[in-house]
Fold this sequence. Notes:
The protein is built from 1 helix and 9 strands. It is mainly beta.
Amino acid sequence: MRELILILALLGCSTEAMAADPCASLQGKSVSIDANGFHGVIGPNGINLVNQNNTFTFQTIVQFQNSPIDQVNGQCKDRHITFTRTRPGFIQEYDGWIFELEPLQMAGIFSHLGAKSYGWCAEMNSIIK
């Protein structure tokens, strides 16, 4: 766990501890993401999870600054989260881990069009309606 906290600190993410089922905690929340210097929001109106045998799946949108709105399809199980950001001619595949911190934190790598890998980190947000 010490190594995970160090990685989050190096990525500029918070490292305060929390206890909860990290995948289920995404229900109804949005996620602020920083990927290769770009900032975006996944599920700006809240992420709707579907639980299938303790694997949570989701479909939503992501809006990065100065970019079109893209579709996101993903899944989460046992702290491991994967999702794909797509639009015609564009695909990014994200692979990462959820950390039991407050607020919920995530970090991992993503590839653009199947090529070079880049780092990303993210933080769960409450939705205010």
